[in-house]
Amino acid sequence: MAIASKGSRRIVVDGQSYRWSLRPRPTYDQGLGAPLSFAVQSADAAQGQVLHATLDAARPDAWLPVASVRVTPAQVGEAIRRGLAAGWTPTAPGSALALHFPAN
């Protein structure tokens, strides 16, 4: 499933263009402190494989007082590089690749 261009952000990593998106509001689990996650897809391939990256901290708008983090472009770039190293092929069709990494 493609990431909608409305509400997503563009990032260029190593000369390739990508779109990434974060849910505008937390899910119920994320509101309780579940890990923050975001999706990344190639900006050129609308039907390419999606990368679902999960950080080990909660969203800053979580309802409970838990350790939280904001997603930065540097973290998105790191997730893209780690995903590519793990076998993510953003221009080829396929099921999503889940990637978990620590928040800095």
Overall description:
- This protein has helices spanning 28-31, 73-85; strands at 9-13, 16-21, 35-42, 51-58, 97-101.
- By secondary structure, the chain is an alpha+beta fold.
- The chain has one domain (9-101).
- It has a five-stranded mixed beta sheet with strand order 1-2-3-4-5, with helices on one face.
- It starts with 8 loop residues before the first strand and ends with a strand.
- The relative contact order is 0.24.
Derived from helix and strand composition plus strand pairing, the structural class reads alpha+beta
**Helix-residue proportion:** 10-25%
Number of E-state strands: 5
Note the beta-strand portion: 25-35%
Order of helices and strands: EEHEEHE
| Rg estimate, integer Å | 13 Å
Low-confidence stretches: none
Tally of individual domains:
1
Number of helices: 2
